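Hi P.,

Sorry for the delay on this. The queue was packed all week, but I finally got your sequence through. Input first:
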Amino acid sequence: MANVHPYLAFNNTKEALSYYEEVFGVTNVSRMPVSAEQAEQFGVSKEQAADMTMHSQFSVLGATIMAADNFQQVELNYDAVSILLDLNSEDEEAMKEADVFWALVEKSDTVKVNMPFEEQFWGGKMGDFTDKYGVRWLLHAQPYSKIAEMLNADK
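Then the structure:
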């Protein structure tokens, strides 16, 4: 089975990682800078290379997100993609973590809340926000035991 991990590009991933640590409380942050030996390959000085990011990753609510610097130098635009963090609403600990996460998001003046994290008509809880980089995040919680019931009902 394959795993899917969002892989984001930033103009300054090192800065973005600090932002996500501060605003989202992300954990397990690792960052691989561009090495001095690779600097020429990327057309930067050895001094610049140390601040550039070849690869990084972090965890948010147990999900792994990966990122690197925008080496293609294209205009970054995240309008067509959202990152959905989906949780089992029957998992009390996961829901506590989601509430703490949402509280961090709400208190940041660098986040635009598009929809509050609250109960929805379909029986789940969902919130939607856009971070300062334009990345849209969806926080969703649903009872996983009901998913199996719904899938079996269609048979």
